[in-house]
Fold each of these.
Amino acid sequence: MQNNSPPLRVSIIGFGAVGQGVATLLQDLPHVEVVAVADSRGVALTPNLGTLLSRKRAGRPIANSDLTALEVIRTIEHDIVVEVTPTNIENGEPGLTHMREAIKNRRSIVTSNKGPLVVAFHELVQLARENDVALRYEATVGGAMPIINLVRETLAGNRILDIMGVLNGTCNYILTRMAEEALDYDQVLSEAQDMGIAEADPTYDVMGIDTASKVVILANSFFDKNVTYADVAVTGIDRITPDALRLAHQRGFAIKLIGEVQELTVSPKMIPIGHPLNVGGTLNAASILTDHAGEITVAGKGAGSIETASAIVSDILSIQKERC
C-alpha cells in the first residue's frame, strides 16, 4: 500500500557517533525528512545528509545558520526531535531542557540519552501524555538489543516480574578477556581503550554507572517505581581478579556485571556457565521474567553508533506507523 501521508519531519540534536549513525540510516529512508541537525558548534538547516556527514567526519563545521538547538526545537516546524546529546546523569542537561521544550511544543521525542530519563523520568512521561506526543527510548537501555519495545509490545499480555541482565558491553568485554586469557584488569582495560571499546575515562562503564542508569530506566518503566541513580546500590568491576574468575570457572560459574531491576542493584555476580546471560565479548543480554511466558532472554549488541541508531530509527518508524 502506498503511503500518501506527508513526510515525517525530524531534527537530530547531537551529532556525535550516534547522531551520525542516525543520519546515515535516514539518508535513504522514504517519508522521513530531516529538517535540521545540531552539533556543539551550530545548526544545519534542511541539510543534505551525505554532505553533512562528510563535513563532520573531516572535522569541518556543519552549521549553515545562526540558530541554536533550542531555537530549532521551538521554532522549526517538525514532528520528532531525535535527542542524542551526551548523557549526563547529574542533572540531565542539555538533553533534559531539549526534551522539555520539544514536548511543550508538541514534538515527539526519540532518544538514546539516558540522563534526562534517569533524572526526570516521570516528569517527562507525564509531560508527553499531557501534550499527546510520543516519548520513545529503546536505545537508552539495550542499543540494538530490544528490551523496552519487547516488553511493551510482544509481551504485552504478561505481567513483568523481574528483569536482570548484562547491560554494558565494555564491562563484559573486560571480564570475558580476563577469564579467557587470565589477564589482569588493568591490562585488559588498556587493550579495550586501544580498541575503542572503552573510553579514555572508563569510569562511567567500569564502575557500573552506565548499568545503574539502565536499571533506573527499566525500574521506572515497568515496576511502578520512582527512582533515580542514588537509589541503586552499585559495585563496579575494577576489583575483579583473574584468580576470582578462575575459581568461579572451576566451580562451574562465570562472573558478570549484573543489573537487577527489581532489587535496584548492580554488581559482579556468579552465574552458571550454561546460563543464557553468560554471553561473551561486547554482547549484552537481558532475562525478562514474566507470569505467563516464563523467562525470555534476549542478547545482542548494546552499543555502537549504527547499532544504537537502528533502535532509534525503529522508534521513528513506530511513530510513523501510529500516525498513518
Amino acid sequence: MYKFIADNVVAFDVEWVPEPASGRRIYRLPDTASDDEVLEVMWREGGATPEDPRPYLKTVMCRIVSIAAVVRKRVRSEVKLDLISLPGLHDGEQPEGKIIRKFLEAVGNLGAQLVGFNSSNADLPILFQRALANRVTAPTFCHRPEKPWEGADYFSRASDYNIDLKNELGGFGKAAPSLNELAAALGIPGKMGINGADVVELWRTGEFRSIVEYNQFDALSTYLVWLRSAYFSGRLTEDAFVHEEQLLEALLLREVEGGAEHLGRYLDTWKAFRR
C-alpha cells in the first residue's frame, strides 16, 4: 500500500480504439483497403474467434480517444475535487496528440499522484506509445528525480506517485476482479449500460459524447476505490473519508446542473448502493 497522499491526486481512465492507419502499416495493407476492412484484418490477426470476434488488441495498434480524471487538490487543510475530460462532453472527436499532451502536461505540472486501475499494464503504456506516435513532448511528466523522495516518478512501478489499484488490491489470474466487479462489491457504481467492448462501435458511429460519459464513469469509480483504500490504510480518518464522499456528491450535483445529466444516474446508483 502507498505510503502517503500527495497534495495533488489524479484518478484517471483512458479509452482507446483500434487505429486503421497503424493496422495498414503493420499488416502491409493497401491504401485502397477501407477502414472497416483493415479493422477486420486487425481483429483476425489478433486472434478473433466466433465467440470473441473483436479481441483485445495490443495497445500499440490503437489510438486514444478520451481521457477522464477526478482531480483532488489539497491546499492546507482544504480539499477540492474536479472532474476533467479530454475531450469535453460537447467537443466531439479531438486530435489524439492534443489530448495526450494536455493530460501529460497537466499531471507533470501538478506533480500529481497518478492513480489508475490496471494503469501499469494498459493506460500508461498506451499513453507513452501514442505520445511517441504523435511526436508529443512532455519533459515535465518524464522528469525522473535522482532520489525517490525528491518528486514524482511516473516510470517506476515502485513509486508512490504511480499507483495501480489493480496491483494493490486485485490479486492475480482468475482471482483478479475487473474495476466493475471490485467497485460493485464495494458499493460503488461500475458500468452504467456501456462496457469497454462498446467503445469501438460508439467511435465508428460518431457517438463521442457517449464515450466521454463512459470514461467519466470509470474515472469516478477509480477515484472512489482509491478513496476507500486511503481510508483502509489509515491515510484518511473516518471523518475525512465521509467528508470526501460528500465533496464528490456535491461535485456530481454541480456537474448535473451544468448539463451532465448522465452523472445524475451515477449519483443515484451510488446512493442506492449505500442504502
Amino acid sequence: MPNAAFLGIGHYLPEKVVSNDDLAQLMDTSDEWIQQRTGIKTRHYVDFENNPMGASDLATLAAKNALDNAQITTDEIDLIIYATLSPDRFFPGDAVFVQSKLGIPAGVPALDIRNQCSGFIYGLNIANAFIQSGQYQKILLIGSEVHSTGLDFSNKGRDVAVIFGDGAAAAVLGPSDDPERGVVHVNMHADGRHADELHCPYPSSAEMPRATPQAIEEGRHFPLMNGKNVFKHAVSKMPESVKEALNATGLTSEDIKLLIPHQANLRIAEMVQRRLKLRDDQVFNNIQKYGNTTAASIPLALSEAVQEGRLEKGDLLCLTAFGAGFTWGAALIRW
C-alpha cells in the first residue's frame, strides 16, 4: 500500500501585523506580560478596513501556493479536506467555497472537519487512509483560521485574545511507493470530558432561539479557556502521543530530524521538547511571529521550515497537536 507523501506545501498570512504593544492599547496587558506567558511577540490579523477576507479566502491563497509548490493543477485534485474552527458561515463548510474559488472541478468531494488545533493531524490521518485505499490520488489538506473577528479585546477576554492570530496553510498529498518517503504513522485521540475547558459556547442549536441580542451583549459568543488545565493536559498528551508513534514504529526521539508541535504556547512547546529530550535544533517554533493559528499552525510552521531548508529527503518529521475537545495526536513522516 502506498503511503501519503507531501507533494507540496504553502501558506498565506494577512499583511496586518499586530504587536503586543498594539494590544496593550486595547486592554490591560503589556509586551512583557504576553511574552513571559506565551512567547508571542506579534500576530497577523485580517485588515477588514482595507482588505476584508474570510477563512476560506486565506485558505484559497494558501492552497494556490501549495499547488504551485507541488507543480500540479487544480484539475488533478480529487479530494479537499479542510480544517477550521472559524468558518465563513454556520453552514455550508468552507471546503466548498475553496473548491469554487480555486476552480476545482464540480463533483470533487469537499470534506470539512472540526478538530480545532488537532485538525491537521486528524486530516492527515484521513488523507493517508484514503490514499492507501487507492480511492483518491491527490488530496488538498488545508488548515485556515480568522480568529481576530471572534476575540474579546476587553480585560475580561485578554488571556485568550492575546494568544490567537489569523493565517492559513495547505499541503498537497499523493501516493508514494518509496519506502523512504511518506506518512509512517498517525495516531489521534479525544477526551470529551474536558470539552468545556476550551470552547466557544454560542450561538448554539441547543438553545431556542440560537442567538439573541442579550446573549451577544453578555459576550457569550467569545471563546472561553481554563488555561491552567489546558496547559497541564497539553504538556502531557503531546509527548505521550509522540512516544506512542515512536514505539509503534520502533524509532526513538534520536531519530527525529524535526519536531513541529502545534503552536499553542511557546512554554508548552518548550515543555514538550524537554519531556522528549530533544535538542533545540530538532524543534521548530514560529509562534513568536504568528500566535496560535489553530488548525493552520502545524502546516504553517512546516511550510516555513521547508522554506528554510530544515528538511531533506528521508528525514524523519514529527508533528504533534493538542486542542479543544480535548483532542490530540501525533504523526511521523519520512520527508
Amino acid sequence: MLPKISIVTPTLNQAVYLERAIHSVLSQNYPNLEYIIIDGGSTDGTLDILEHYSGQLHFISERDSGQSDALNKGFRMASGEILAYLNSDDEYEPNALLRVGEFFRQNPSAFWVTGRCRLIDSQGREILRPITLYKNLLLSIKSRALLLVVNYISQPATFWRRKVLDTVGGFDLSLSAVMDYDYWLRISRVFPLFTIRDYLARFRFHSDSKTVRSAMEEWDEELRMIGRYAPSKVFLFLHRFHRKIITKGYQMFQRTGLFKKSLR
C-alpha cells in the first residue's frame, strides 16, 4: 500500500497562481493524499478559490507570523507518513506523487528524498535551463560538505518521513527566506539524503516571488544561517565565492533577456 502523503501549501495574496498549484496537486490522482493550505489572511480572491475546492482539501485563513509559522501550523495539522510543502506559485510535475510514494514504499530505510526541478516563468514556460542542469550535476555529487557551500536541493521536489519532523522539529521562525535550506542542513546531520532522478516539480520565477524580489536580503540571511553549521571559515569563504559566481550568472541571463521572461 502506498503511504499517505500530506502536502502543505502556505500562501498569502497569490490568487493569480494558487489555482495552478492546487490543480497540480489534485490532478496527481494519488490514492492516499492529504492536502492542506494555510492562508495568511489574503485579500485578493484567494478565499474564493479555496472555498471552491473545499471538498478536496483542508484550509484555514488567519494572520500568521510568516511562512515558517504557516508551515509549522500546516504540519501540525498533517496526518500523513510522508510530508512536503509546495508554495502557492510552484507546481508538481504529473505523476510526481506516485513516484515519491513508490520510492518510500520500496525504500523503508530512506527518510528523505529529493528529485529534479524545472524553473518556469509566470506563464509556465521552462527557463534558465543551464541553472537547472548545474543543480542536477550538484545533486548527482551530493554530500553534506557540498550542501554547506551551495543549496543544490530544490524545495518543491523534496519529501520526508514524519520521523524527520519528530526528530529535527519544525521550521525556524527566525528565518523568512532560507528556512528550507536551514531545514535541509538540520536533516542532513541525522539522515542521509536519497535522490530520484525524475523531474518532480516546477519552481516559478516571477516579479512578485520572494526569490526575485528580495534576492540580496535572502543571500545575507543565508550567509548568517550557514555560520551556524560551517565547521570552519573555509566553508564560509567557499559559500561567498559560489554566491558571487551565481550572481554573475543571473546577471548574464538578465543581459541576454532570458531572465526577463520570468518577470512578465
